[in-house]
Amino acid sequence: MLSRVAQRLYWFARYMERTENTARLMLVRHQLILDLPAAIQPEWELLVNVLGASENFEKTQRKPTEKNVIAYVFGDRDNPGSIISSIANARENIRTTREVITSETWERVNSLYLSVAQRSNRELPRGVRHKVLNGIIQSCQQVVGLLAGTMNHDEAYQLLRLGRNLERADMSTRIVDAGSAELAGEEEDVQPYRNVLWISVLQSLSAYQMYRLNIRRNVKSSSVLNFLLKSEVFPRATAHNLSVIAACIDQLPHNKQALKVVTEVKTYLAETDMRDLAGMALHEFIDTLQVRLDSIHEVVNATWFEPEVSG
């Protein structure tokens, strides 16, 4: 396989997963509006910060109001991390690799792009927000199902799985960060709503039922963190994603260095005691974990894609 084709498959999967999880992040904030009293509503600027887009957002010279942040994260083409930008990039990558992707997958991705593009220049009010974002999430999941059910499970498919799970690991940590950020200061008026915040995080990752099935106890921070970060059986848990990444890399050539880096990240995660993480300590841990996840991307890029230009 040509390195440029491999790279485009990898980035297609990453952009599709980014589209889905950005929608999930927006749903976290939206759900908190409904679940928390007016006196302690979440700050919308935090959503921009968690996505790493604060510097670009400041350049727009817009105030971080709910309306402005939603417009920027959902439909602003000048924001490289917006939903419309992510799905547009996914569409372009699959358009140029259609010889290894089934026509049904291309049609589903193209349909999703046209739907988001039509909505991107309009407001996303609270009354339709859940329906629109949930529709995007479901469409992304349909693409994953199409790929699994219609594509050869060869090296091309392993690159798709590799990109998807690396992006999922990163974005799941961002969702945990976004959902727990209101607790960073340990304000007294927030404490009665700790369970509401953690349930919201679980629901945003479609994890609440599986959490109750596996943990069989009331929702509390250390248990939620253990489940979302260390579970080997829940498909959106970081540890599970890392195991899938390792399995994918194991089926690719020249994989020794990449497997070593993945093992180092898995060890770092496994050795961290979630009971010690709260407030800023949790935020700092997630920052470090994200840097280590990025090191996996760097070794993947250096091993299989260079000297091609990154996506």
From TrEMBL:
Residues spanning the membrane: none
Domain (DUF403) ranges: 1-305
Cleavable signal peptide: none
Protein name, UniProt field: Alpha-E domain-containing protein
Top-rank lineage group of the source organism: Bacteria
Coiled-coil residue windows: none
Alphabetical list of InterPro entries matching this protein: ATP-dep_Glu-Cys_Ligase-2, DUF403
